[in-house]
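Quiz preparation item.
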């Protein structure tokens, strides 16, 4: 995934083009090409020019801590980290001493000249360290941040503002803000949990921010709750939110054991799953593949086909190879096709890659991510005339699961052809076949089926992409 700037941002950027500023960009962590990785870009704030070496040291320390924290630790190979050295005229951040949530001054008041106008006491809350005091954008700082990123590293996926202050503070939003003191990196992970991975607070955020999400719901039925696959596993349950002593009609998977509630805790299992699912959505484990040309020597058998994969640590990727819709190999990165393997005319070789990580609970999990390379091999009595290749990504959802009556099927993919879904009973009988087009949800009535477990097989063309359990209550 790459960031495409919204129209209004491009409009302002065009106006300010003559004022575009270049700042030094330093690589902090490189895992691969920027267009194939999730790029986190850290911007300095409140560091004077003489302090930019300290900023790089701080940025490296933050990166090291983040990628030694699960689930970023397991998926470190999917991320790049860069730092943009933006100098400020003065050090620190504003602290006007105007907060109303505690007795000021909580630390010395000051007003300093910094590039992104960072300030404590935003919206009257002392620890809300933000780049506008009241959100009225008097300084157009959000546009300023966007322009710095667009001018210096336009392929960013997440911008993060690192403020040179020892005082605890931070904020979320499009561009999370954190401080460079001891807990700052954990504030950064909490806030990126919001901005990049769509996680919600597990302390009560207020009625205006409460909504259905990965780790927040009004559902109390353990068989229907979003995290039903984790229920009673790794301490996950259905815990009520409170605002002070007042209970709210909202529920979370944990009570005081997740960083989305308490900053000194790890990510809970439900939030880890949400992060990994987003990584699956934003990137592909297939870094490249061979052959990727259409010219092949007809006499050069066997012909090698190879995947170069970005692997988690430990490696939880599973690969399945099919030739002409029949199983050919599994859990290998390369195969060799002989002349005897091929049929006259058109042959299709597919490599399907999925991630079987334990961080995502597959049983009863509603989504499947599959990454596919397809080679079309034209073969005749004169040998191989050409090989064509293409890649596809599939995000398949089947929900609710289990279900009594209706099941929703939908998928997003880069392949224009519909998916075929065969529903098979446990004794091997084909119950139903459905075709689903991308972005067109379809409902299946299973009320007539006997209670029990069925298998849903997903096919792209003749290639089996994935199989998933379907439970009829």
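Solution:
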């Amino acid at each position: 995934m790459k960031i495409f700037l919204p129209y209004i941002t491009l409009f302002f950027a065009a106006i300010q083009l003559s004022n575009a500023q270049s700042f030094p960009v330093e690589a902090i962590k490189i895992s691969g090409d920027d267009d194939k990785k999730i790029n986190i870009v850290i911007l300095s704030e409140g560091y004077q020019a003489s302090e930019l070496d300290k900023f790089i040291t701080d940025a490296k320390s933050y990166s090291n801590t983040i990628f030694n924290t699960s689930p970023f630790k397991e998926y470190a190979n999917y991320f790049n980290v860069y730092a943009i050295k933006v100098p400020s005229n003065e050090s620190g951040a504003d602290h006007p001493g105007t907060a109303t949530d505690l007795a000021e001054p909580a630390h010395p008041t000051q007003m300093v000249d910094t590039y992104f106008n960072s300030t404590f006491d935003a919206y009257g809350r002392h620890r809300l360290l933000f780049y506008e005091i009241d959100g009225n954008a008097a300084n157009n700082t959000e546009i300023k941040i966007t322009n710095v990123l667009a001018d210096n590293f336009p392929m960013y996926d997440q911008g993060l503002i690192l403020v040179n202050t020892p005082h605890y503070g931070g904020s979320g939003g499009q561009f999370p803000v954190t401080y460079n003191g001891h807990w700052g990196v954990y504030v950064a992970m909490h806030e990126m949990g919001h901005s990049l991975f769509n996680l919600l607070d597990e302390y009560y955020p207020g009625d205006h921010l409460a909504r259905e999400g990965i780790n927040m719901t009004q559902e109390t039925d353990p068989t229907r709750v979003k995290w039903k696959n984790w229920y009673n596993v790794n301490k996950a349950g259905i815990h009520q939110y409170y605002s002070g002593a007042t209970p709210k009609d909202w529920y979370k998977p944990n009570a005081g054991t997740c960083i989305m509630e308490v900053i000194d805790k790890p990510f809970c299992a439900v939030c880890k799953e949400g992060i990994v699912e987003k990584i699956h959505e934003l990137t592909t484990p297939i870094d490249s593949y061979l052959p990727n040309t259409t010219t092949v020597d007809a006499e050069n058998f066997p012909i090698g086909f190879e995947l170069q994969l970005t692997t988690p640590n430990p490696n939880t990727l599973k690969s399945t190879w099919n030739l002409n819709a029949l199983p050919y190999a599994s859990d290998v990165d390369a195969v060799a096709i002989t002349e005897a393997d091929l049929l006259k005319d058109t042959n299709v070789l597919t490599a399907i890659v999925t991630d079987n990580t334990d961080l995502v609970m597959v049983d009863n999990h509603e989504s499947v991510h599959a990454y596919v390379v397809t080679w079309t091999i034209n073969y005749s009595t004169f040998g191989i005339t050409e090989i064509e290749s293409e890649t596809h990504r599939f995000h398949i959802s089947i929900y609710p699961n289990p279900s009594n009556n209706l099941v929703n099927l939908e998928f997003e993919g880069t392949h224009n052809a519909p998916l075929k879904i065969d529903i098979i009973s446990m004794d091997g009988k084909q119950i139903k076949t459905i075709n689903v087009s991308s972005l067109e949800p379809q409902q299946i009535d299973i009320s007539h089926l006997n209670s029990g477990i069925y298998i849903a097989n997903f096919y792209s063309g003749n290639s089996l992409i994935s199989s998933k359990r379907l439970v009829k209550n």
